[in-house]
Amino acid sequence: MLSPVDIQNKVFRKAKLGGYQVEDVNEFFDEVLKSYQELTNENYTLKDKVNVLNESIQYYRTMEETIQNVLVLADKTAQDTKSTAYEKAEQVKKEAEQRAEKIIFSAEERANKILDQVRKEAFNLAKKNEELKAQYLTYRSQLKQMLLAQLDMLEQSEEALSQKEQEKPEEVTCEEKLAIEVPEFESLPQNTEERYYTKEYMPVGEEEH
Question: Whole-prediction pTM value?
Answer without folding.
Answer: 0.33
